[in-house]
Write a structure and sequence with these properties.
- The protein is 47% helix and 14% strand.
- It is of the alpha+beta class.
- It has 2 domains: 3-74, Winged helix-like DNA-binding domain superfamily/Winged helix DNA-binding domain (Arc Repressor Mutant, subunit A), CATH 1.10.10; 80-228, Alpha-Beta Complex (H-NOX domain).
- The strands form 2 sheets. The chain has a 4-stranded antiparallel sheet with strand order 3-4-6-5, covered by helices on one side.
- Helix 5 runs parallel beside helix 7, helix 5 (99-111) crosses helix 8 (210-228) and helix 7 crosses helix 8 (210-228).
Length: 229
């Protein structure tokens, strides 16, 4: 798929719809060029006009473009079936109090796939860049933003690889929380969740120095080791 059209799909997923003007602003493109790509996406039945809204009290109503069901194929959820079977097996085989520990251990193992040796004393923003790239390679459609001086950061994950099964297996949400904590090297507070009908799973992250990040990460690893004993 053309890179611009792929970006449009991502923007519409993250924002649950957008106007031509909003897309043009996101893409730094002329509205006429955006319309060209929208026409192609509509022809492929990947987007549609979901509603019409008026911005303010003047001007013409604007069309809000949204994703169709067919567009879901462009956002990975290839882990859903396997994860559902795995979750069911674990819950059948393990005592209830050991199930959360097993999912945290899996998050720890996944996080180990990221080479963080050069992030030991790196600024939080550098770590966020690496973590976001790592998550995007696994289909999470992640991005981060700064809350300003001293305000910390937000990490958004706008695609769930386990879509459709998290309501039955909330342990997968626990695993993702543990994964973000492990990758960032500090506890990160989840402020909204797609499992609760939010647009994205969002995590609030403090802007702590790199050295303290490593100390926090070491502490979390010790907790996981104790749980496994």
């Amino acid at each position: 798929m053309h890179a611009v059209r792929k970006q449009i799909l991502q923007i519409l997923k993250e924002n649950e719809g957008a106007t031509v003007a909003e897309l043009a602003d996101h893409l730094s493109m002329a509205p006429v060029s955006v319309r060209h790509h929208l026409d192609i996406l509509q022809g492929d039945n990947l987007i549609s006009v979901g509603r019409v809204e008026r911005k303010g009290n003047v001007g013409r109503p604007q069309q809000i473009y949204v994703l169709t069901e067919d567009a879901g194929d462009y956002f990975p959820n290839n882990f859903a079936a396997l994860a559902g079977k795995l979750a069911r097996q674990l819950k059948q085989m393990l005592p209830a109090d050991q199930v959360p520990c097993a999912f945290r251990a899996m998050a720890h193992e996944i996080a180990g796939e990221l080479n963080r040796a050069d992030l030991a004393n790196a600024p939080v923003e550098m770590r966020l860049e690496r973590v976001t790239a790592f998550l995007n390679e696994r289909g999470y459609l992640a991005r981060w933003e700064s809350l300003g001086a001293g305000g910390g950061y937000l990490l958004h994950k706008c695609n769930c690889p386990y879509a459709g099964i998290t309501s039955e297996h909330r342990e997968l949400c626990l695993m993702d929380q543990a994964l973000v904590d492990e990758l960032m090297g500090q506890p990160c507070r989840r402020t909204q969740s797609m499992a609760e009908n939010a647009r994205c799973c969002t995590y609030e992250i403090e802007g702590i120095p790199g050295g303290r990040v490593e100390q926090a990460k070491s502490s979390m690893r010790s907790e996981i080791a104790l749980e496994l004993v």
